[in-house]
Amino acid sequence: MIVRKKGYYYVFIKQHDHGLLSGELAAQMTQPIRPLAKTLYAISHHDWGWESLDQSPLWNEETNEPYSFEDYPMLPKLEAYTDGIAKVVAHDPYAGFLCSKHYASFFTNIDDPVARKFREQEYSRQNKLRPLFTEEEEENITANFRLLRFCDDLSLALCFNEPGEEPNHPWFKDGILYQGERYQWVWEGRYHLRLIPNLFKQSFTVEIPYQVFDGYRRLVGRDVYRFTVMV
């Protein structure tokens, strides 16, 4: 879950919904993406493994607050990552490779033995998948991996903030770096925003489903954020 505290309540956005938003953002970009369908599938489904974990929130009994993806217990999180990558690989090896590369990058400088085992497992998976790729796929691995990470950040920056409010999450206050340039979401009212500098070919509307829980762990509401990305 992506969890945002709002007064006495908690706003929950499911990871896979955030992933689907990442794919929508990528699909609207002006830059050429090759191979298109496989890369968009990877970006849209990179958080597929969270689907089972996000069926119901997990609460930290010590703090009486919900776990988010940032502090979720390591073992079940890595098991979910592994399952999600495997499902994407089963659909398409190239898309699965990009997701594997994305998740392995989280643990490059972490010495936790469980995380290290996961990282080595994914390196092994990548080595087995790579000989299957076409020349076009191989040539675009680096560019598509960077695009996945960028669209992941673009989507997270939206999910971490209340619509209409300037970005305040520490990860994104200074913008999002991509290909040597920093990009920033700028709101124009509650329902319209722009990416500065612009990377999109046309204006488009996106939706983000969310749930609201109170401090007693009760579901008190659900709705959908709807807003238009302007060019």
TrEMBL record:
Lineage: superkingdom: Bacteria
Pfam families listed in its UniProt record: DUF3891
Protein's name in the database: DUF3891 family protein
Species for this entry: Laceyella tengchongensis
